[in-house]
Amino acid sequence: MEPFTRLTAVAVPFGQSNVNTDTILPARFMRRPRDERYPDYLFHDRRFLPDGSENPDFVLNRRVYRGARILIGDTNFGCGSSRETAVYALRDYGFHALIAPSFGDIFAANCIRNGLLPVRLEGDVVAGLRDIAASAAPAEMTVDLEAQRVLAPGRAAVGFDIDPFDKECLLGGLDDIDVTLRGEAAVARFEAGYRREFAWLYRRSR
Amino acid sequence: MPAPRTIFDKIWDRHLIEARQDGNDLLYIDRLLVQENVFHAFDNLRRSGRRVRCPEQIFAFTDHYVPTRDRDAGIADPEIRNMVETMQRNATEHGIALFGLGDVRQGILHVVPPEQGITQPGLIVAGADSHSSTHGALGAFGFGVGVSEATHILATQTLWRRRPRTMRIEVSGRIPLGVAAKDIVLHIVGRIGADGGVGHVIEYTGPAIRSLSVEGRMTVCNMSIEAGARAGLVSPDDATVDYIEGRPYAPRGEDWDRAVAWWRGVATDEDAEFDREVALDADRIAPMVTWGTSPEDVLPITGAVPDPAREADPERRDRIARALAYMDLVPGTPLAQIALDRVFIGSCTNGRIEDLRAVAQVVEGRRAAIPSTIVPGSGLVKLQAEREGLDRIFRDAGFEWRDAGCSMCVATNGDMLQPGERCASTSNRNFEGRQGRGGRSHLVSPAMAAAAAIAGRLTDVRALDRQG
Ligand code: SF4
């Protein structure tokens, strides 16, 4: 995974709560292999009209937001289906950081593992950033993971919290499977005891 | 005396391998359930040269992409066929048990494991699908994972997690006639909101929950994710133990006694504390129906389409207006006057035998006024329904009787709504385009879906009963 340290890019406001992963990536595109890349499937049914042409009303299609790599959403962004392909689509389109008051749990975990940084900030702070992204478009913002802060034009820097483990994985571009396998001895020890206690869990059905 | 603990805490503590100082815990995972979309995880594994660590703890299903009719003809669409065949290939290659096409046990990954005894109390069940919360009905900690986390489990049989907060939803009172588990959970999602459970694991308690069958509890736990919760569960009781006994993967002999002792001990202790408490009264719950594009957009069938103009909060006003535009609904319209184009009965929320019995009870001797489809949650549910003669009741009433799978719940197998079509559905998501681009879904219970099929519009199943 590509490490994430600091990103300066145009931010696009996406002021809608409970944006679900079916909207981010309609289910019919999930069958595509990973090496195909997913940029055109992102928000497909909102971004494109039924005839395949671009929907001029959709925010990502506005000229000032072309090339945006930061998306500023609203509460519970990425709720619903566990499809990680929704994150593939955001990443392949070019997004590197998402800012919202809250994210769907599974979605946030998926983001971290694909080098997409989910930044949680208070609702009014996020609303303020969305306003800047809308009124000063194209507004460049900086998401600094190392310093854990967001910089936006015309406003003081805002700090954010992030799980230290997630931060470590993102900064180092680490694969958490490698991290776990380094502690393999502890897993094996645990498993030996567990298997003795719950032997029936390991039997095939009759 | 040790401090009283919740079932969730007991499960977590028993599965804890290592606790990092920063609050991340390495948990042992008992079961991983995978379906066709998980091919990315097997590709990841292959790319990194890793193997499946514990094949006997992984269970594979073909459900999202399988055809639900004319199975003998094979799968015409090459991409869809490839999804199903890839799952089969990966299962064979890694020595994983597969409930695949051609196997009578084939079905949805949240219907089959409880049916087979794979889901048991006290386990951690991770599923590569958000509705893995369903397994909580048996007192397991069931949650959904993405492809990366599924890969992590395949390679290590573990997962890193921060301990979520706990929430108790206590449902007191008695469930009125004509009200189902689905109505209870829709009511809950409406009450706490689509993000009301974020960061929490919900335990459902109270006499109304206890009075539900294990299958009804599955319906409730299933939709916990629609309230944003990490998981939902019910502490095991006699009903749970009875449900599991004799199932193919259930423990037997001495194992059985040891297992039952562990299951009983894992239930939440009296006086255990939760981070949040919600209380509601089942007596006041009516049959529910969604009017919008989020499961939280829900009202009793006796209600009317809300009016955004009456909403003070501008964001909410916009959201309602947007949802109504998509749903093509006029504010103030009584919900029971909304005409439908079709009905879909099935999914991991309501595709079990009791759901089908509830449908049969309503439709017996009547005729569906609109195209209506019933898709059982598993091959064994289908077989059981046929043993009971339900299929004949459905066919006589003009319903289509299909083979098991997810079907129109997610519309990836080709069963889908046409643009603009309006459907009463027993599934769990009414998102824009969920059941087909431009399709409009109204979520309801099985009995309400059955009544809607007969009436050709949304209707109160209790009124239909009175008409006889
Ligand atoms: S029935 Fe629907 S919600 Fe359930 S697993 Fe299948 S697609 Fe997901």
Task: Write the SSE topology.
The complex is a heterodimer of chains A (206) and B (468).
Chain A (H helix, E strand, L loop, with lengths): L5 E8 L7 H4 L19 H4 L22 E3 L12 H9 L3 E4 L4 H8 L4 E4 L2 H13 L4 E5 L4 E3 L6 E2 L4 H9 L3 H7 L1 H14 L9
Parallel strand pairs in A: 1-2, 2-3, 3-4
Antiparallel strand pairs in A: 1-5, 5-6, 6-7
Chain B lengths: L6 H8 L1 E4 L4 E5 L2 E4 L4 H9 L10 E4 L16 H17 L2 E3 L12 H5 L7 E4 L13 E4 L2 H10 L1 E5 L2 E8 L8 H12 L7 E6 L1 H4 L3 H9 L8 E3 L4 H7 L8 H14 L9 E6 L6 E3 L7 E3 L13 H14 L14 E4 L1 H4 L2 H11 L8 E3 L4 H9 L2 H7 L3 E2 L20 E4 L14 E4 L2 H10 L5 H7 L1
Parallel strand pairs in B: 3-4, 3-6, 4-5, 6-7, 9-10, 9-12, 10-11, 15-16, 15-18, 16-17, 18-19
Antiparallel strand pairs in B: 1-2, 2-8, 13-14
Iron/sulfur cluster binds next to α12 of chain B.
How would you characterize the overall build of this protein?
The complex is a heterodimer of chains A (206) and B (468). Chain A is of the alpha/beta class and 206 residues long. Chain A has a single domain, classed as Alpha-Beta Barrel (Aconitase, domain 4). Chain A has helices at 21-24, 44-47, 85-93, 105-112, 123-135, 164-172, 176-182, 184-197, and strands at 6-13, 70-72, 97-100, 117-120, 140-144, 149-151, 158-159. Chain A is globular. The model of chain A has no long low-confidence stretch (mean pLDDT 94). Chain B has three domains: 7-161 and 242-261, Aconitase, domain 3, CATH 3.30.499; 165-235 and 270-284, Aconitase, Domain 2; 288-467, Aconitase, domain 3. In chain B, a hairpin with a 7-residue loop joins strand 13 and strand 14. Chain B starts with 6 loop residues before the first helix and ends with a helix. The model of chain B has no long low-confidence stretch (mean pLDDT 96). Chains A and B meet through helix 4, helix 7 and helix 8 of A and strand 2, helix 2, helix 3, helix 5 and strand 8 of B. Iron/sulfur cluster is lined by residues 63-64, 108, 110, 129, 131, 347-348, 406, 409-410, 427-428 of chain B. Residues 63-64, 108, 110, 129, 131, 347-348, 406, 409-410, 427-428 of chain B line the site of iron/sulfur cluster.
